[in-house]
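Quick question about two entries, pasted in order.
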Amino acid sequence: MSKHKFLFTFYLSLVLLSFLVFCLHILVLYLFGFPLFDHMIVLAYLLNMVLALIIFSALYWFRVKYRDQIGFLFLGGSMLKFLFFFIAFYPFYNADGKMESLEFTSFFVPYFVCLLLETLFTARMLNS
């Protein structure tokens, strides 16, 4: 079990940080009087978390065999997240012909949080 402690630490960090940021995000929406659960915010957080878990797990499992290609796999994972954005979220957000800042932040705040954590843990994984 200790062999995979790093992976478990990533999972736990991702879930806790995402939950914390989600709560802060909802609090900011509440304080400014915006609708709390509009713009598919829950789906955006969940999808970004699941994709981050899958992508980082793949990086972790391929870290030895494809050590020299981890950076390219990481970039491919980021492209996969954008593909999901354009398939699942963009048509909904752009239905009225424009993307509002609330729509933008509903997806890109969790995207940025997950990407930041993935980047930090990938760098730590490669440096060890």
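Here is the second entry:
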Amino acid sequence: MEMPEKLAVIVDEFASAPRDVVLEMLLEYSEAVRPLPPELEGHAGMEQVPECQTPFFLKADVTPQGTVELFFDCPPEAPTTRAFAGILAEGLEGATPEQVLGVPADLYQRMGLAQAISPLRVRGGTAILQRLKRQVLDHGGAGQ
């Protein structure tokens, strides 16, 4: 299973960009994270990702239409970590559970982020992706 086309385009854009442009792109994605709906304010029903240095919360649901709906919350003062949320939200919008589960675990290495940000941040991003996939599985993803 290939990753969703929107995410593949984002990966290619990052992988081919010079390091200084990668940092600008991360900042843009950090600003694109949509606000939480009222029912999730205060992180009700969200899971914290303790591997992140910054307080990071996520929720993944599978809609009745069979697509994955993602919600993220991370403080604006943590633009790199917040950018992970923006990248996943943009790249996985409208994706099926199978497509989300097919996202490679080394996503951020494929994007070339290991050369632009600290290994600790990359590990945090990888933990976000792992928890997101687990939530999709827990909510009936992959035909369960």
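Reply: The CA atoms of residues 1 and 89 lie 19 Å apart. Residues 5-138 form a domain with the Sufe protein. Chain: A fold (CATH 3.90.1010.10). Hope that helps.
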